[in-house]
Amino acid sequence: MGSSCRVEALIGLGLLLGVSGMVAAAPPLRISDGLFDPSQPRTQGLPKLRIKETVLYKASARTHKFCHHANLVRQGQRVLCMWSNGRVGEDEVGQRILYSMAEVGRLDKWSAPRELARDPSGKGACVAAGWLVNGSTLVAFYTVTGGTNFEPRTALWAKVSTDGRNWSDPRRILPGFYIAAPLKLVGGSLLLAGEHVGEARATRRMALYRTQQPDGLGGWGEAKIAPGDLKVFGYTEPAPYVLPGGRVVCPFRNYSGTLYASESGDEGRTWGVPVKTTFPDSLARHASGRLPDGQYFLVNNPSAKRLDRSILTIALSRDGRLFDRAFVLKNEPTAKRFEGKHKLDGWQYPHAIVVKTSLLVAYSVNKEDVRLARIRLDALSRRK
Question: For the whole model, what pTM was predicted?
């Protein structure tokens, strides 16, 4: 048996043991020894990439002062970015969704932000949850909370458009708290990953759902996953990605100082118990995906200090298992300009997509501003 076959067999055994409630034999992902150097918190011992950066929103004394949960999508010859936009603090009553657009050939020039959604009752908050393109239809997802993120009425909602300007009436999709859109799987189904709310949190944390409905507007069925130790997880903020052959790996935010991860070998229907990986994470949202050359990427805040988001990095893997190269995206010192609930300094909550010859990474700055970084794909190539 070759080494790659042995690894897959071991991971498959880990999945089996995880589903049965035993400790998994191997984590679905890991980093190479010494990839990050915590003794150098400003750089983690990594080289820095050259990027081009664009400001999509800058908070001022006259505007809403909270921004977070950026989400990107490409539809035809345009790129859209949505984000949560609150008056002062995070996820407070009255928070709305803003979005901006740019042409694929003019990614340095974005439209003025427009309002996409708000809670019509005026009593809740809206949280950006990403996009789905289904043919000529664009679906915008967002979470509506009842004032607190895990209260029982919290649910995913959606609006539909064909031109990115005119939108349908909102429709409720399913309960839970979500900050990312459904992921398309190899067999054509969709995987939605977020948080359980209400009484469900007494025994569960991450909420994983599947549907075969291509627009994601219905047909959702809950996947089976046992979280293991509930004390490890608060928000899990899953960011799944698909391996060759259709296996799905899903990293989770948690309190341990490194990502946890689970894996599914049946198109997201069942999952192993999440296990601790060696990938450092400071307790924040992360972004994952695959580049055109086949490499996998994971963007996160890898600081050893909890909630330290002063450095944003991108790690790369040939097989989606072992991440053995990494670069700094942003590490310049930042300072929030306006006080507010849960405000933190730093480069936060990334989301990333590939557009032509660039990787686009959107993020919030101090939970006040929204920026977009453009990274040339050849700067990430293994041949560099």
Answer: 0.93
